[in-house]
Design a protein that fits this description.
Length: about 525
């Protein structure tokens, strides 16, 4: 009788045979969604052997996961999920849009830096050259490092997707990302791919920052009265970029003297900050994956703690609260690598310390602040000089103005004569509107500004500081202004003045202060 024809192997038999080609199998358990195989593992050849198994099963549409439980090693085989991919046109379209939005942001930063007001073709060229291209180089190298390392480790990875963002956000981009479509084969691969991107971007951001600080030393002198462009309510001259520890160190060796940052320096500042934020040990951020590779499953506690800290930092800066919500949506835990048994090794532990140092050195508690645009006014003082010829009274009113913002501001000065009382035959008489105007027409006003300039206001004019002049104060600076006046009309009993200082280009809801002053000649 002829031998019965051998039936083809079942799916489970084929999977078991593939695994057995690489690891001795001594037990098989069938689950509803996976096949669990107890195997013998040679620790000396584990990583290359497991990677060959991963490639063999991947070709058949499966994924192996290596686990060690109660002293035994198991390989669990599951189906590889079908992932949809997008054409390269999506990457190209997003890149083109990001170039456009970052070049526009760069043009706005450029005209703010140079103190101009028109978005010319030259401003777009300079904005693209000194801001858009550097920031895209930092982000691009970061993501291409992810891509190159992933492909070297035989992982399916997409080309970078850049994220454009229009004004009023000042930088034109939300960053970029690479989609890793395969699970990481082991902790070393997870570490290499995750740490490689930030370190590559950081290596470019630092020299860009240094070059930008050098150019800042040669910044043009922009008048304090200059009003920077305002886009959808955001005035580009009201932004203050806080230094990180690393930035403070770089600025120590390449000091800029408090000048407005060159757009190239801003590109470096953004690159350093974004790298630091991306290294926070939370969930699917690069720092979260680095922590998972270094600490194993214990990294989840670090992730929970860092996310909680973000919400706490939201007290100081609202952006951290918003970012905390985002990381919660993305998830606080990383899936383990397929081989979660092999150790990470001492060299990668050392690089992990470097990653932690980059995180700390580049982080800023309050990255961007908007200036208040306010002015402080001290208590006015009144002195009485020697009367000029034909004058009936004279007085000098002095007051200290202060700029609480770290950027320079210019202030216009308004003066209102609220009331005048004359002695008419021994009777104090408050002047009505017509008589008050006559008194003002016979009064001479002089302003002495903090820079030493003296400005005369002709008799009969509104006694404001004339429009071409302003009080200019440096960042966190102060200066005294004196209003001197003398009148030839009547015997003055009392003059009530209201002195106001108004900042040019004020922030919304702020920008002025006033003080009432009563002058009574001795």
């Amino acid at each position: 009788m002829a031998a019965a024809a051998r039936s083809p192997p079942t799916e489970l038999e084929r999977i078991r045979a593939l695994v057995a080609e690489h690891f001795p199998v001594y037990e098989t358990r069938v689950g509803p969604q996976s096949l669990l195989l107890a195997v013998h593992v040679d620790r000396g050849t584990l990583e290359p052997t497991f990677d060959r198994l991963r490639q063999s099963l991947r070709a058949q549409g499966y994924i192996p996961l290596l686990r060690r439980e109660v002293g035994e090693d198991f390989i669990e085989v599951v189906r590889r999920p079908t992932l949809s991919t997008r054409g390269l046109w999506v990457n190209a379209a997003l890149l083109a849009a990001t170039i456009a939005t970052s070049a526009f942001a760069g043009a706005l930063l450029w005209i703010t830096y140079t103190g101009t007001t028109t978005l010319t073709t030259g401003a777009f060229v300079d904005g693209a050259l000194y801001f858009a291209l550097p920031i895209l180089a930092i982000l691009g190298l970061h993501e291409f490092a992810h891509y190159a390392i992933a492909r070297r480790r035989r992982l399916d990875a997409s080309l970078p997707f850049f994220l454009p963002v229009p004004p009023p956000l000042p930088f034109g981009t939300f960053g970029a990302f690479v989609s890793i479509r395969d699970p990481f084969p082991d902790r070393k691969a997870m570490f290499d791919v995750s740490a490689g991107g930030p370190l590559a971007g950081f290596a470019v951001a630092v020299p860009i920052a240094v070059a930008g600080l050098y150019l800042t030393q040669h910044a043009p002198i922009v008048p304090a009265a200059y009003c920077a462009p305002t886009i959808l309510g955001l005035n580009y001259g009201h932004e203050v970029f806080s230094p990180s520890l690393l930035w403070a160190l770089l600025a120590y060796f390449v000091p800029s003297g408090g000048a407005a940052l060159h757009p190239l320096a801003l590109a470096g500042w953004v690159g350093i900050l974004v790298t630091s934020i991306n290294l926070l040990p939370i969930g699917s951020l690069d720092g979260g994956r680095v922590a998972r590779a270094l600490l194993g499953d214990r990294a989840r506690f670090v992730s929970y703690g860092a996310a909680f800290a973000l919400f706490g930092l939201g007290i100081f800066y609202t952006g951290w609260f918003i970012f905390g919500i985002l990381v919660l949506v993305l998830g606080l835990r990383n899936p383990p690598p397929l081989n979660d048994v092999s150790p990470i090794g001492a060299p990668r532990l050392a690089i992990g310390a470097v990653v932690a140092a980059v995180l700390v050195a580049g982080f800023v508690l309050v990255p961007i602040q908007l200036t208040s645009g306010t002015v402080g006014m001290g208590t006015p003082g009144v002195t009485y000089p020697t009367l000029p010829p034909s004058a009936q009274m004279a007085a000098n009113v002095s007051v200290e103005l202060s700029n609480p913002d770290p950027v320079p501001h210019a202030y216009s000065i308004a003066l209102v004569v609220a009331g005048v009382v004359l002695d008419e035959g021994g009777h104090p008489t408050t002047l009505g509107p017509g008589a008050l105007m006559q008194w003002n027409n016979s009064t001479h006003w002089t302003y002495r500004l903090p820079n030493g300039t003296t400005v005369d206001v002709p008799s009969g004019a509104i006694p404001d500081l004339p429009a071409p002049y302003s009080v200019e104060l440096t960042g966190s600076g102060a200066g005294a202004i004196t209003v001197a006046f003398w009148s030839t009309t009547g015997s003055v009993v009392e003059v009530e003045l209201t002195l106001s200082a108004n900042v040019n280009c004020p922030a919304s809801g702020s920008g002025s202060t006033s003080e009432s002053i009563v002058v009574r000649p001795p």
